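User: Second chain of the day. Same drill as before.
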Amino acid sequence: MLILMIVLGLGSLAFGIATVIYYNQAHTATTTLEAQKSSAASAARADQKASDAQEALAAAESPFRSYIAPTEYGAFEIKFPKNWSGYVDQERSASTQVSLILQPDFVRRENNTDILAAAHIYLIQKTQTEYLKQFASAKGMKQTPTTVSGLSATTVTGSFPDKRSLRQVIVPVRDKVIVFVSEASAYTSEFDQILAQAKIIP
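Assistant: Same format as last time:
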């Protein structure tokens, strides 16, 4: 009987010691895991803060700023000189869903007419074929293939019926077109820069 009690006592003692050891190991593992999580979260916050600061610095140093269309309009991005003025009209249910006017000075209207724009960008609910039909019967109009934001596009030049356009660049985007219009010859190089930096999601 005494031997049995001794064995049971030793077993209980061993179980108690093992329990304490396993508890300490589990506690240490939990503490280590929480410390690792906290360290990782702190590092992620620091990385994000550094990334945000770098982006803010790049934006401050860049000579350009951006218009980014809402997601429902395709989220296309148009960069233009930071010191220019811009005006945008967005109409969800209209044929022309986005009309963006960019000017080096004020965006003006005189006698109820917009002055000629350095760049005028439209998002129109027409296919490229439908849009180009208006130039089919116009004399002296020339269509040339080009590329904008990696997408095949068409440049149209000549005597436009609207009496304003010097050049139009039509970019098909699904069932719509984005039309870049140059109206002021003094800003041809800036217009080309705007075209070159456009980001359009196909």
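The CA atoms of residues 48 and 117 lie 39 Å apart.

User: Great, on to the next one.
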